[in-house]
Amino acid sequence: MDNGTNKIFDLTRLLAHSDFKIRKIATGAKDLTAGEYFDMLSKLMDRAPQFSQDLLKLMSRDGDRNTYKNLADMFTILKSLGYEKHEVDFEGMLDAYDRGQSRLTTVYAKKILEDFDGLCARVTATSMTVQPEDFTADPYMVSLKEWLTNRYVEDASKKPVILAIDDSPVILKSVSSLLSDDYKVYMLAKSVLLEKTLDQIRPDLFLLDYNMPIINGFELIPVIRRFVEHRDTPIIFLTSEGTIDNISSAVMLGACDFIVKPVKPSILRERISKHLNKAEDVPA
């Protein structure tokens, strides 16, 4: 196996996206190495443009046997990677194509294509340019299961992660001091850096100030929701502007709560606990 030309991927972020059932694949295919898994991801990205074109051919009823073969090959790669979201759709599409049912084939192909571009964007975002520095030997020949066990052990007792965004350092330090015993608190004073921050950490809850320069709290909500893993992550506003209009606007944009400053510690802890517990109860 030659990893020189293939990409390396950040499995931490892939696991966070939950597009691929990586742990399930690692357990089922015990001899699968991390390098072989990376190879398959590389093939997925290399073939993605052709895959999209082939789906469009089916939708325009312009496919042939070669189109069928390309799609079947990609389906095999996706199954090997642990991508299960459209498993039934893929099988239905290829079966409908085999039977000459062009209209049903188009329905399945359109459904898959609508999701595929987003999938590729998320995989691309996890691509790394260098291998982890703490590996002295080639890590890619290690079994994927061992790789995951050694590097990404899930700690059931780990603290939930909170990202507090406020242009006031005083407020940030105060919030961190109040919550650090029970939560891992990250502080962000410049709202323009939110997207870069979310590439590095995965908060379980957001605390947003409303009135900030350049990008205010309301404008940050769509930024947060653009991340697939944060479509339902709780967002609580902390602000001194607790008008009815502000509260209504925050809720309409996707916030789950609104706490008026100065914040009482007991209320802050109570609301955070409440919304984190709600998030845990939502079916995956």
Question: What this model shows, in words?
Answer:
With 284 residues, this protein is of the alpha/beta class. It has helices at 11-17, 22-28, 34-59, 65-81, 87-98, 102-125, 144-151, 169-179, 194-198, 217-225, 244-253, 265-281; strands spanning 8-9, 127-128, 161-165, 184-188, 205-209, 235-239, 257-260. The two termini are 36 Å apart. Helix 3 (34-59) packs antiparallel against helix 4. The strands form 2 sheets. Strands 4-3-5-6-7 form a 5-stranded parallel beta sheet, with helices on both faces. The protein has 2 domains: 8-151, no CATH class; 161-281, Rossmann fold (3-Layer(aba) Sandwich). 54% of the residues lie in helices and 10% in strands. Mean pLDDT is 81; it is low at 1-5. The chain is elongated and about 65 Å long.
Annotation keywords:
alpha/beta, 284 residues, two-stranded antiparallel sheet, Rossmann fold, 7 strands, single chain
Q: How would the blueprint of this fold be written?
A:
Layout: E1 8-9, H1 11-17, H2 22-28, H3 34-59, H4 65-81, H5 87-98, H6 102-125, E2 127-128, H7 144-151, E3 161-165, H8 169-179, E4 184-188, H9 194-198, E5 205-209, H10 217-225, E6 235-239, H11 244-253, E7 257-260, H12 265-281
Parallel strand pairs: 3-4, 3-5, 5-6, 6-7
Antiparallel strand pairs: 1-2
Helix pairs in contact: 2-7, 3-4, 3-6, 4-5, 5-6
